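Think of the structure tokens as a kind of shorthand, similar to the way a musician reads notation: each symbol stands for something richer, in this case the local conformation of the backbone. In the example below we present two proteins back to back. Begin with the first one, reading the sequence and then the tokens, and try to describe in your own words what changes along the chain.
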Amino acid sequence: MGLSEPSGKCWKGFFCLGGADRPDPPFRDSGGGPCPKGYYCSEGSATPQLCPQGTISTDDGQASCRACPQGFYCPASDNGSSSVTNECPVGHYCPSGTWSKHQYPCPSGSINPHTQMATPQDCLPCPPGSFCASPGMGVASGQCNAGYFCISGSWSSSPEDGGATGDRCPVGHFCPQGSSVPLPCPLGYYSNTTRNGHVSDCLPCPPGCAYKSVVVCFYH
């Protein structure tokens, strides 16, 4: 009574509206109260502040927000959704402080079939015989095209990168759809062209020739 100035600032973890009679209002009412979850209240707060994106506050009475845990993302919105975590979706990874489920997609040529992953190392190379065309994939896009082979980590259905992730089927071989390695033409057959997709693309050695290798026939 008879105060000529305020007694002091509202305590950390609380907010004090006009007419507050204590620094730590125990209930939220017209005078203030404990900071609600999803918000933070630093010393002297008049209103709660929403936790920034990528942070979270899961309890009442918090003076600060903590970073979103790894394997989850924490968006911020006007309704205080930063009081809950959301699991990181397939095709992505979420380090600590992630705020969007699409923030860290696994790159093209890789997949992640699991949720709650946290690091780039959780992204796996696209499986042999398949290709992964887009970022953020949980499963492969499809099989490698006939006439090509996909070793691992391919982002194209028809890779031609010198064998880093795959290449066109070489001479003397055939590569059906979904091939991870070239298949040699059968004994007595040859092929002098690339991008063969079927065993029928291998030609029989002509009369008067003998089988030498999967690439050529030679005359006696």
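Once you have a description of the first chain, move to the second and do the same.
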Amino acid sequence: MVQYAVVDAFAAEPFKGNPAAVCLLEDAAKAADERWMQSVAAEFNLSETAFLFRDSSAGATPRFQLRWFTPAAEVELCGHATLASAHFLFTSILAEHDAVVEFATKSGILAAKKVPAPESTGVSGEGKLFIELDFPMIDLYECDNAELLTILKTLNGASVVSVHKSATVGDLIVELSSAKEVADIIPDINEIKKCSGGGVVVTGPAPAGSGYDFFTRFFCPKFGIDEDPVCGSVHCVLAPYWGGKLKKQKLTAFQASPRSGILYLQLEAASRRVRIQGEAVTVMTGTLLA
């Protein structure tokens, strides 16, 4: 049997943010069985399922191998399922004094640590578990004219300010003129499936006085889900993008999906890292029998 939890990441209450299944593997054979992991991810049918396997060769800091699967494919980087994994470990598996956990992933060693509530939340953080992820910064570059024409058709006439592409899986990063357009957009999912790259990120400046710096939504039907409710990894691109535009190193992002979520971001330009902070809530636990 395999212990699992379903955790709502980047959420302060259940049924918000982005749900991820987290499976703790005790068997090395299962940790190496990609077909089994993909089948489990398809069974959960969430945007991501994370698989953890303890690395006994690590030093004093607890370390786990971590892999992420959508219902359709394995991915190389996922923020919300990493946050969910860290939350699960801190609340159910690790000792209370453990404040940092490391993950060995296809994107290198990623660290997660317990941190106080961000100042911008206006709460003391008493009794709350905020977690900070240390992720790599991702570059972006200009799209060519053919991709620009395709994306205009995909977004059903939205007011496009600029179109870029991320340097990893090639997500298209589309800035719209306002947060309202981001929140209200109804894209053509079938057209998005035809676009180059992984998915389409739409983003726009937050309304004045909202407490946020920018809004985002992420559509990724090629990975088995039309809209990812809250995506940490795309903020590895968006944080430096909006940080440059707004001349800020600390930003607060709102993902305006129907479930919604909040991400607290800090740029570390010299080391090319993005620190992503957020909360998570466990909503389900159980065991896999297969």
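Compare your description with these statements about the second chain. Residues 45 and 71 are 5 Å apart (CA to CA).
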